[in-house]
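Data deposition worksheet. Section B asks for the primary sequence of the deposited chain exactly as it was used as input, without tags or linkers unless they were present during the calculation. Section C holds the resulting structure in token form. Section D is free text for depositor observations; keep each observation to a single sentence. Incomplete worksheets are returned to the depositor.
Section A, Depositor: J.P.
Section B:
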Amino acid sequence: MDYSAKKTIKSANPYMPLWEHVPDGEPRVFTYNGETRIYLYGSHDTKKTDYCGPDYVVWSAPVDDLTNWKCHGVCYTASDGGDLYAPDVVQKGDTFYMYAAENRGSSIMLVTSKTPWGPFTNPVKTELGFDPGILVDDDGKVYAFWGFCECHAGELNDDMCTIKKETVRHHIIGHSKPYWIKEDDGHVIPEDGFFEASSPRKVNGKYVFVYSKRYEYHKPELGVFGSCNGFLSYKWSDSPLGDYKDGGDISFNGGEVITGPDGNGIMTYQWGNNHGSLMKIKDQWYVFYHRQTGCDEYARQAMVEPVDVALGKDGKIYIGKISYENGEPVSSTVVDMTSQGFNKDGLDAFSVISAGYTCHMYDGTGKPNFLDNAEGTNKGVRRAHIKPVYEGDSSPVVDIQSGATIGFKYLNFGSEGASKASIKGSFPKGFTVSIRLDTYDGEVVSSAKADEDSEELVFEIGKKITGKHAVYFEFITDDDDKRAVLDVFTFD
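Section C:
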């Protein structure tokens, strides 16, 4: 099949190029010189063998074309030459204020710029702590939230740097109890405890605190059966420093969750730490978060999903995937992790699509897709994973074993439909690859076998596929020691 004549998808989910690794993303919409754009500020995974790196880069997209992302380059380099953890950026007046987390988040420096993309200069040490999140309220008052396993908050002075001591609230929400905290300090919340990643937002008149929670109990519907901090969650209040009430979970980076034979969920992507926030772009709210690639947490990528927002009669705000009864919101849960990102109609199936956009890598064992960095019985298991890349348009899925499905939600085949497909990668002799629609165990529309070691397999599809579908590639071979690689695919 002629790939050279086709467009290559370059902004799906992750929505930045696959060679870029910007986690901990705090999105902001700013209007500058008459142009309104969404800006993404995060840490920068460049060290490859550890978290983050010594610089921040800025990416942005016009609010009218959210698939057109531009890199503005490095906007700040650590003044101490060390590693920069998660930042935040806000605007007040004509100045943009960045809270740069130097020394691995232990020294929060305030730096400023007259443009949203920087460069940010003149570092001044603040009184804030780990993972700072800033809220500029409608009345001009500014509030800061920060902490690791303990959440603190307070109002900032006009210098945007120091805290009004009389406003400080410690343990503004309770925290989780990871294994390293030996005793309950009186602030532990078993189910909704704070871990890190403070991010305050104002949503429909309510104050919403987005954070990373660390589950220390089972959540079987999502396949969680032990400690897990792959969630972004929220609580809400009627005032910025008030009492925050139960909210729920918004995002989970464990991939598509399927139902196992015991009725419990199975996560199909390797979860890892999570950090991000909410932002309204035009009329739609989105959750920005990150996922892992490779076999560790050192090559993370920026992800996004649309979320629903609703206000109940009791004043509670619901965020995520919302359930209604008689027109009223009654509960919410995490939104699906997808491959489409801002492409709300699905990815163009007739383009060249990298396997790196997968949101589903399931080996068929009934166990979650933990990798080499996992604890317990799965440690060291060779399982399918996305190979991190630092150049080029494709990031392959490697170590694909027999029984695995690699899935994409969603592709759009249009009204004309597709009758042929092609995949490229490395397919050892004896592998049969089948294309399934809609679910990982759904209808098989075509299969192709590698009669010898092959770099491309072509599929003839008996019926035309039209409209929007989830697509899964299933890999089967008699030799359990063999592994395949899926690089790119396309339909005709």
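Section D:
The chain has two domains: 26-333, 347-491.
The helical segments are 102-105.
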